[in-house]
Specification:
Layout lengths: L1 H23 L3 E7 L5 E7 L10 E2 L4 H9 L3 E3 L13 H7 L3 E9 L2 E10 L7 H32 L10 H20 L3 H15 L12 H11 L4 H8 L3 H15 L4 H10 L5
Antiparallel strand pairs: 1-2, 1-6, 2-3, 4-5, 5-6
Helix pairs in contact: 1-4, 5-6, 5-7, 7-8, 7-9, 7-10, 8-9, 9-10
Keywords: DNA-binding, Transcription, Transcription regulation
GO biological process, one term: regulation of DNA-templated transcription
Pfam family, one: GAF
Length: 280
């Protein structure tokens, strides 16, 4: 079981690093795992030029990653060796690798920091807010992947234990859950009684809850309703008819959602909402 856990989580981390490099074009992406003694160890990397940072162990509070671990907040520096927001015990190692600017974000699962996700460049380039947002979104996606892996392993443990009826859902069953969630939101939208509508919306939230991560982007109930329609394959006109609003209003909600989630299409918005746990 432990070997399975390591392989599944390593695969998720490797995919996150590759996705982050593709999305940002930044040459160096790294992941540091939290060790049992509350230190970090850089366990996976892409784009490092030297072995200086490979498998490096970092104390809590030290450098960028150690500060992220101790504060549980993202940290970015544009000139590592001159940055006054971090300590400088690892300056020589950073200089050996030649990194100049670094952004690091915590990966938190079940309220515990599981690791730190990094990006870095070897040239004096400032990594702006857009990069921090992209690293943060990738970290949130990785958090959900790790949480789903853990839930699947728990489910598998139940299945192999005393409860022989426990099992994992297949793809078709999971799609049925998604469809039901979207239809429930549409039904809630047509209910005039506030208390009944609130109960239906709570049921929708409970369907997402098993894999929900903390949302860094807050979507309104109406924005979620529009996304639920899109998830069912509705056009803007069909969504407008379903929700009892104008097509231009639907477009306005979609534009707001795509701006918040950094999506370029309606379907990218649905996928992004699923990554942050707003949709199943």
């Amino acid at each position: 079981m432990e070997a399975q856990r390591v392989k599944e989580d390593d695969d998720a981390i490797r995919s996150a690093l590759a996705s982050l490099k593709t999305a940002t074009g930044i040459p160096v992406t790294m992941y540091a795992t939290v060790l049992p003694d509350n230190r970090l160890q850089i366990s996976q990397w892409i784009g490092l030029r030297t072995p200086a940072l490979q498998n490096l162990v970092i104390d809590s509070g030290v450098g960028v990653g150690g500060r992220v671990l101790s504060t549980r907040r993202p940290v970015g520096v544009s000139d590592y060796t001159r940055a006054n927001v971090i300590s400088h015990e690892n300056d020589a190692i950073i200089q050996d690798e030649g990194l100049h600017s670094i952004v690091a974000v915590p990966v938190i699962v079940n309220r515990e920091v599981r690791g730190v996700l990094y990006v870095g460049v070897h040239s004096p380039v400032r990594l702006g807010d857009k990069v921090i947002e992209e690293v943060t979104m990738t970290a949130r996606t990785l958090e959900q992947d790790l949480a789903v892996n853990a839930a699947a392993r728990r489910n598998e443990g139940v299945r192999s234990g005393t409860n022989k009826q426990g099992r994992l859902m297949n793809g078709a069953e999971w799609e049925q859950i998604r469809s039901t969630h979207s239809k429930l939101r549409m039904l809630a939208n047509r209910i005039e009684q506030d208390d009944i509508r609130a109960e239906l919306e709570e049921l929708c939230d409970q369907m997402v809850a098993p894999v929900r991560v903390k949302q860094t982007t807050k979507l309104s109930a109406r924005e979620l309703d529009v996304l639920s329609c899109v998830a069912l394959g509705h056009t803007n006109l069909e969504a407008a008819e379903e929700m009892g609003i104008g097509a231009e209003t639907v477009k306005s909600y979609l534009r707001s959602v795509m701006r918040k989630l950094g999506a370029h299409t309606r379907y990218e918005a649905v996928n992004a909402a699923r990554r942050i746990g707003a949709l199943p």
